[in-house]
Structures are given as structure tokens and as C-alpha cells.
From TrEMBL:
InterPro entries found in the cross-reference section: AAA+_ATPase, ABC_transporter-like_ATP-bd, ABC_transporter-like_CS, ABC_transporter_ATP-binding, DrrA1/2-like_C, P-loop_NTPase
Alphabetically ordered keywords of this record: Antibiotic resistance, ATP-binding, Nucleotide-binding, Transport
Subcellular location: Cell membrane
Upper lineage: Bacteria, Bacillati, Actinomycetota, Actinomycetes, Streptosporangiales
Sequence ranges assigned to domain ABC transporter in this UniProt record: 2-229
Pfam families per the UniProt record, alphabetical: ABC_tran, DrrA1-3_C
Any Gene Ontology CC annotation: plasma membrane
Topology of the protein relative to the lipid bilayer: Peripheral membrane protein
SUPFAM superfamilies, A to Z: P-loop containing nucleoside triphosphate hydrolases
The protein's name: ABC transporter ATP-binding protein
Amino acid sequence: MIEIDDLHKRYGDKTALAGVSFAVKPGEMFGFVGANGAGKTTTMRILMGVLAADSGQVRRDGRPLTFEDRRKFGYMPEERGLYQKMKVSEQVQYFGRLNGMSAAQAAKATADLLERLSLTGRAGDEVGALSLGNQQRVQLAVALVHDPEVLVLDEPFSGLDPIAVDALAEVLVERRTAGVPVLFSSHQLDLVERLCDSVGIISAGRMVASDTVEELRAREGRRLLKVVVRDAAPGWTAGLGGNITEKGDEVLFTDVNGSDQEILRAATKAGTVEHFGWERPTLTEIFREAVA
Ligand SMILES: Nc1ncnc2c1ncn2[C@@H]1O[C@H](COP(=O)(O)OP(=O)(O)OP(=O)(O)O)[C@@H](O)[C@H]1O
């Protein structure tokens, strides 16, 4: 288990992190989300030892992370760092070798990854000759080549086309299933919602929510009540509690504060109730609420 415990970080008089804590379990995919400048990259740099925290700790299985631990991590930094003049396949193999693989292991892992990320046809091209999206795929191959024990990826999906998004998602899900803790940041909340078991929402250097996607949605899930009444008597919602938005037969109630049964009785009296239930918010709605 990877634990981020109460990280604080200032850049001069600018506070970047003001107490960031969360944990990523083995076999868990954790989506790290937050507005621009919220502190995601700073947190991941501290996790990877690229940057020192002012206070707080990063632990693996209860003990502080060491250089040796981090060598077994796969990291995709925000500042992409590839040798532009090196050929794609050589580059990925090179990083595999740097991480302790034999030449044969690195060659095999590289060939497999290039295939998965649809880069086989570009294996002999210089990285600098590739489009930005394809360079991003190479960067991912570099982060993944040594079969890391932990994955820390800073916006791995940005700039990828939908096919590459699916290919990367498949690789990450595979690693997660093999027991690897996977942490990635993203602004693509639909993707985070689709892929992640847990989500951390950071705002202005503080964690404002950190839980499983299911828990977050369930917790927020009794905020929006949707009622559809066919052939309702006009004005049937008059005098009922909460904020009310009406659209044809559909009525949405927010901030109902326990008056749901009263609403159900009124709806039943007004006409034929076709739908009565709590709407589960999307991650985007939860995010907007959390950082507001
Ligand atoms: N080297 C630095 N010097 C000064 N301030 C910095 C530095 N790096 C980051 N910051 C500031 O720290 C805060 C957190 O930045 P960080 O890059 O961690 O955010 P982020 O959540 O990754 O943002 P984004 O989604 O835009 O990548 C921001 O206010 C940023 O301006």
C-alpha cells in the first residue's frame, strides 16, 4: 500500500500543498483529480522523490519510501523527458536496461508494449519525428517497460486519441488486476469514473474528498430526487420542500431534507407515478460541488 501522509509544500510564499493525505492499495486504480494548479503534480513529484516536501511522509507498506523502492516504480512525469534523436525501440529498451532488465528482457518487453500501443510500425523512427500523441505513447511505454510494482502517471491520457486511450486503459487495468497500485492524474473525469476504483479530489492544496467512486456517489446520492408523474394535476408540487425544477412530467427536487415520503404521497395523489428515485450524481457533478 502506498500512503501519502499530510504533505505540506511551499514555493516561496506560495502554498502548493496544505496537508495532502491519501492511500492507494495494491490492485487499486486511484484517480487524482483537481483544477489546474491544485497540487497534483507537486504531490506526485514528492511521491517520486523528485521534489522534497516541507513536511509529511510517503510510505510503502508502512515504511518511508527509499530510492530502491522508487526504482521499481513506473513514473510518467508532467515534463515529458525523451531523447528526441533516439529511435523509439532503442529508447524504450534503454529505459528498461536502466531499470535493471537484461538486454533480452528489455527487447521483449519493448516489442510487446510497442505492439500494445500500436507503435510497432514506428519502432525504427526517431522519437522527434513522431506526432505529440505518438511521443506520449512512447513515454508511456518507457514508464511501463520494466513491469513496475507501482505506477504513478501524471496525466497519461492527455493528448491521446480514443483508440490510444482504450489501449492505455487496457494496459493499466491489466496491471491493476496483477495487484499493482496505479495512481494517475487526469482532467478527463468520465475516464476516471469509468476506470478508477477510488478518487481523490484536491483543491488548492487540500484533499476535499478521497474515497471509492461508489462511496462518493452513494454519499452524494440522496441529494437529487427525480419524480415523473404522468397526467399530473397542475401545480401538484406547490408547498413541497426542497428546490424544485420542473420539465414536462419530470420534476427534480434538491435539498429535500427528509421530505421524500411527503413528495411521494403528493405525487401519487397528483397522477400516475412513473418514476420516483434518487439520481446518482456523476463524478463531474461531485467534482464541481467539491471544489466550488
Ligand atoms: N516550481 C514552482 N515554483 C513556484 N510555484 C510552483 C512551482 N511548481 C508549482 N507551483 C505552484 O504550485 C501550485 C500547484 O501546482 P501543481 O503543478 O502541483 O498543480 P497541478 O494540480 O498539477 O496543476 P495542472 O492540472 O495545471 O497540471 C500552483 O499554484 C503552481 O503555480
